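Q: I'm teaching a short session on how sequence maps to structure, and I want students to see two examples side by side rather than one. Could you give me a first protein with its sequence written out and its structure tokens following it? Keep the formatting plain so it prints cleanly on a handout.
A: Of course. Example one:
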Amino acid sequence: MPVKINGEVYYRTLEVCRKANISRSTLLRWLENGLLTKTRRDRRGWRLFTESDLRAIVAEVERINVEEIPRPK
């Protein structure tokens, strides 16, 4: 369930993975490789993602899916 902090909606790691249809390890690898320049954390140290972050992650999924489509010869 998304959380609202100062009027902005944030998603936790599992929610982002479900919405983008990727594994947690894939998301963490992408973050390590610089997909997002800045991630937020809550008081427990858990990552929080904005709608903008989620759109960037979904765009990366779509980019990868398009590259995997075989092209006719």
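Q: Perfect. Now a second example for contrast.
A: Example two:
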Amino acid sequence: MTHTADRGYPWQISGAQGWSVQRVRAHATDWVKRFQRSVTLTDAAVVVFATASTHTLWFGFSQVFVSTALPTDFGVDYVTISVALVVAWMLVLALAGTRDGRILGTDSTEYRRIINATLLLFGTIAVFATMTQTDFARGYLATAFPLGTVLLLTSRWSWRRWLHARRRRGELSFRVLLIGSAVAVRELIDSLALRTDAGYRVVAVVVTDDDQVTQIDDVPVYAAADDFSNTLAAANPDTVIVVGSDSSSSRINELSWRLDPGQQLVVAPQLVGVAGSRIHTRPVAGLPLIHVETPSYDGPKRFAKRAFDLVFAAGLLLVLAPLFLVVAVLIKINSRGPVFYGQERIGLSGEPFTMRKFRSMVTDADAHLAELLTAQGTGDRPLFKVKDDPRITPVGRVLRRYSIDELPQLLNVLKGDMSLVGPRPQRDGEVRLYDSKAGRRLVVKPGMSGLWQVSGRSNLSWEDSIRLDLFYVENWSITNDIIILLRTARAVVGADGAI
């Protein structure tokens, strides 16, 4: 039997032979530097515009030089203050790492760093003004702060949309060499393929536990026993990702020594469905211990979520009241039957409740569900969806196209049966088909919208839907709820997966 430690891992280097090979120079990250420069220029334009607009708003074009009252014998004009603010703003954005190539265009970290850096800057100015008794125009700071923050976030969002479009075409992405077991490598390749916006394109693989594998999903596989310098030269990656738990710290250290300073080494722990906010690294005795916070569903977070649901659901009901009236009239004109449709669904902790919707089908739709599911061969799956459903009325098709039929669920939110965001509530028959993993969806309230609704809607498979729902359950927060609601509006307008 061959032990893992005895296998020819690519970073096991004997003597000086490995060092005689010329090191590979990372080249693909040149696009990162160009992108960072473009973002920097945009940031500068935004900061200058926000500061100049604020100055003009408060002092006009005719009062360019306006002095502040300082407890000294000299004054400082607001032009100087505005210039200093621009310089300081750009400096804190750089020091906070808001243009770090590893976070640009990826997740909320970029936005969070921008907000934190701007808060730090204006907070420092406010503290300085208080300590030195400087009489700054409060309106000047109160205008520059929100204006600049909103414009910076909008600018970064625009850049992100542009970057994601390029990455969907296979451009502006990090070239990745994966190292790990065959199973772990396949799982990571599949995960990265679903998130092209993350910017990782796998160009080569080194499988450490199966010498017979030559290709995985059209990605070439290099032998683990080969000299690693030759593998680097052939694959020419700018990022090397080690995945799996069979890699010792000494092997990973040796691997890092083989990389060019321009190349990145990433160690991917096998933590599936865990948000970055729950992961913390703590060095102990030279070992980077990874702490994973357990999800919390009680206390202040639950109270905040309920308050959020109540306020927004009540507000939406008031705003949408005229639309409710129009939809009710159209349903009555189009077909006989009630305006609203009530169906038993399973909610928090497996408790049943009646979910309300605008009726979008014929009145006896439920009686035909079983035969339609059997006809399409999906009666044994926990996702009762009928393709090209003949039970849908003409008006109902339009209501479903824009998810208008779901709006009465705001009443369920007010009642407390549902939340604005959460796993989709399912029928008792579907819940009976749950395995232990899927059953974890029931530890939080079901939602009107959720991750799977904004990630493909009805086009997603059951496996993908449950994966997204479980990720939400394990990592939910008010911030994520707001992001999902904003994405929901965009998903509703899109044509894919509408019905």
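Q: What should students look for in example two?
A: Point them to this: Residues 1-28, 64-74, 495-499 have pLDDT under 50 and may be disordered. Also worth mentioning: Residues 30-168 form one domain.
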